[in-house]
Design brief:
This protein is of the alpha+beta class and about 400 residues long. The protein is built from 17 helices and 14 strands.
Length: about 400
């Protein structure tokens, strides 16, 4: 792909437009008819994310899983944005995502998109294509997107952090509100069996474990040595230094402002949000994120577990909500979410069961652990204490 830096540099920043009810810029809508009529193949793999949620990371993992052994020269000669084309981008004569996809000689074709689920071309569904969606917690996603828009000339000017913070909460972002995006794809997962929904935080916590899950979903069986090699190559620091993965060869990115790969951490939002902003965001988040089965982590506990407590009721006092982390419990109420991805012990279910005999309390499963719903405040706190104490005594 030939990219003319003069054409990119001379172009003015695009303005947001309302496109079928979603905020977009013309670079992702000008080729709409061609994109919507795109003919997917049954073995195509679509990688979907909200911008800056781990797209390149998972793209690189999949490229290595499929072609790292059979076509190793790709890794040193073809940038990731050509190996895994961005379907909807259209900035002629510089870039056309559909042309890049059509030019792929690999099988399967790995294709990326930032489309909300309702914009995905119908042929992907008709061909029953496999899809991998990556979601990132909203606070870190906002921070990463802010710096991305600062350095990417085909994105709108983000303005200062305070104004950007408000725009994000209002959903005035390219590809629409974060809330609609992650929820839309999550809902689709319930009815479309060939959709694998991943979390950025899980990848950070244990990359090897998440690669194993990907392999299971895709029906791949790499050797232990291959998985070890891939896990090492896709570590953030290695990718950041890799000229074929870090977008440093794409002139649309101004690395003098910010690198494309900045930190790759969970919890960097704390370096940007004021206390007041965090509280304002949390209140807004509670109103918009009402599906108890879709939960995000805004930090990763060193002990390898997180207990999330969240009320979906309209409460006036923040003290009536609760969160238990790092063996510290504060009194809250309503619902307990226990992430168990990296827990090294089995919970004593008999002890927990004795605590949830209260009428109306329900126990179930969600994406990465257990959920207890309908708890009153004292019972919620007691349950947390019981679970945390079990962890304190675990290996």
């Amino acid at each position: 792909m030939s990219v003319d830096p003069d054409k990119i540099n001379s172009a003015s920043r695009p303005e947001l437009i309302d496109f079928h009810g979603v905020s977009m810029v013309h670079y992702f809508t000008d080729n709409w008819e061609t994109v919507q009529n795109f003919q997917a193949r049954p073995d195509d793999i679509l990688i979907a994310t909200y911008p800056k949620a781990g797209t390149t990371w998972v793209s690189y993992i999949l490229d290595l899983l499929y072609f790292g052994q059979t076509m190793p020269e790709r890794q040193t000669s073809i940038p990731i944005y050509e190996r895994v084309p961005f379907l909807e981008i259209f900035a002629p004569p510089v870039i056309s995502g559909t042309d890049l996809v059509e030019g792929l000689s690999t099988s399967p074709r790995l294709i990326k998109t930032h489309f909300p689920v309702q914009f995905v071309p119908k042929s992907f569904w008709e061909q029953n294509c496999r899809m991998v969606y990556v979601a990132r917690n909203a606070k870190d996603n906002m921070v990463s997107y802010f710096h991305f828009e600062r350095m990417n000339r085909i994105q709108p000017d983000p303005g200062d952090w305070s104004s950007y913070f408000q725009k994000f909460m209002e959903g005035k972002m390219v590809f629409g509100p974060w809330y609609d995006h992650v929820n839309g794809w999550w809902k689709k997962k319930q009815t479309y069996s060939k959709l694998h929904y991943m979390f950025f935080e899980d990848l950070v916590e244990d990359t090897g474990r998440e690669i194993d899950k990907l392999c299971s979903f895709l029906g791949l069986s790499p050797s232990a040595e291959e998985k070890k090699q891939i896990t090492g190559e896709v570590q953030f620091d290695n990718m950041k230094k890799n000229g074929m993965a870090n977008y440093s060869t794409l002139p649309v990115m101004d690395f003098k402002i910010s690198p494309f790969m900045r930190k790759g951490k969970v919890g960097d939002w704390k370096n940007h949000f004021t206390v007041a902003q965090s509280e304002q965001f949390d209140e807004d988040y509670r109103k918009k994120m009402r599906d108890p089965t879709l939960q995000f982590r805004t930090e990763i506990c060193k002990k390898g577990f997180n207990i999330y407590l969240h009320s979906y009721c309209h409460m006036r006092k923040a003290s009536q909500h609760c969160i238990a982390q790092n063996n510290k419990v504060k009194c809250h109420q309503s619902t307990v979410y226990l992430h168990t991805n990296s827990i090294n012990t089995t919970l004593d279910d008999s002890k927990i069961s004795r605590l949830i005999v209260a009428e109306g309390v329900r126990k179930g499963a969600f994406s990465s652990g257990l959920v207890f719903m309908g708890l009153n405040s004292p019972l919620c706190a007691e349950l947390c204490e019981t679970i945390v104490n079990q962890f304190k005594n675990s290996p």
